[in-house]
Amino acid sequence: MNRVLALPALFFCLLTYTPSYTTFNLIFFYMTWTTLILSHSPFKVELFGSIGVRLLFYVLPSALLFLFDALVPSAAVLLKAHGEQGLPSGSKRRRVRVQEFKVAGWAFLNIFISIAVQAAIETLRIGYFKTRSALKVSFTIPLIPWNIAFHLACVLLLREILAYIIHRFVLHNEKYRITRYISSLHQTWYHSLHTPYPSTAHYDHPIPYLLGNAVPTLLPAVFLRLHMITYAMYLSIVSLEETLAYSGYSAMPMDFFLLGGIARRVEKHLMNRAAGNFSPWGIADWFCQTTITEEEGGALITETDEEEDESSPVFRGREIFEAKVQEALDSHAKKTQRKHKKRSRHLL
């Protein structure tokens, strides 16, 4: 447990790095990092560093926001972009059901499934194929701000492109049998949500989740072979983005950094039948002209409200209820006819 907490704490020190750092602080940081490298293998540094960053920047804040929505809905609804609909239960008068807790549980479980897959890949690379680790873990540390910024920009751009391709052409593609199966899982799980709320960023069936979330996040970092410290910064940015953009709140902290726009894009994608907004930041959608505009989003939501979806559970439940009522009426009519026939026979 100490490893899990110590590693992200060290990475957080570098996240707050500024040119005003004194020589003493840089020496202290370098000595701490060197001690960490000498006392742990690259595999452990990568594994526990990833777990720590995810816990610190996604799991804990998402869990707190989810509990806030569940325990104090009357206060949370004031901050929601879609009012009561943005709450986990869909109404401040309705208690959070087991289903909403299952959504949060699956989201947190998917986080650790992705880290387990990352650990399995590293075990094969290092233990079986005898190659170097996927991420760079060395005594040298990245301290030049523009080099760090360049690597972060490259890996975020690659994530944007890869997430768009997988999301649009795999998770929402019913042309081929395999993509149709994956798409059906994605539709049944993630697109069963009414709106995004805390912890839903990682809610999905594990197969579409690993393809649509874990692969676009990890593969660019492996392709560029980021330094572990740069990767921790990158993973922190992604985790904070997912925590805040999927919270459903109208006012975003760090809203100047496009988080408010990202949050509205996520909501439009979920609430408008996946008609667009396939990439995390919207750059790929803008380039491929798949952005859902305000007019298109409003029209699609209105159409959804006016037209009942015959495949929805509510519509099917209503059909079953009406069929049962009709069956009961027919049965009662038949019994009444039998009674009348018996009475007429006795009279004769």
Automatic annotation (TrEMBL):
GO molecular function ontology, one term from the record: iron ion binding
Fatty acid hydroxylase domain mapped to chain residues: 153-290
InterPro entries: Fatty_acid_hydroxylase, Sterol_Desaturase_Related
Keyword Amino-acid biosynthesis: no
One GO BP: lipid biosynthetic process
Chain coiled-coil ranges: none
GO cellular component: membrane
Principal location: membrane
Subcellular locations according to the entry: Membrane
Transmembrane spans: 55-82, 103-128, 148-171, 218-237, 243-263
Pfam families: FA_hydroxylase (PF04116)
Swiss-Prot/TrEMBL keywords: Membrane, Transmembrane, Transmembrane helix
PANTHER family in alphabetical order: STEROL DESATURASE
The name this protein goes by in its record: Fatty acid hydroxylase domain-containing protein
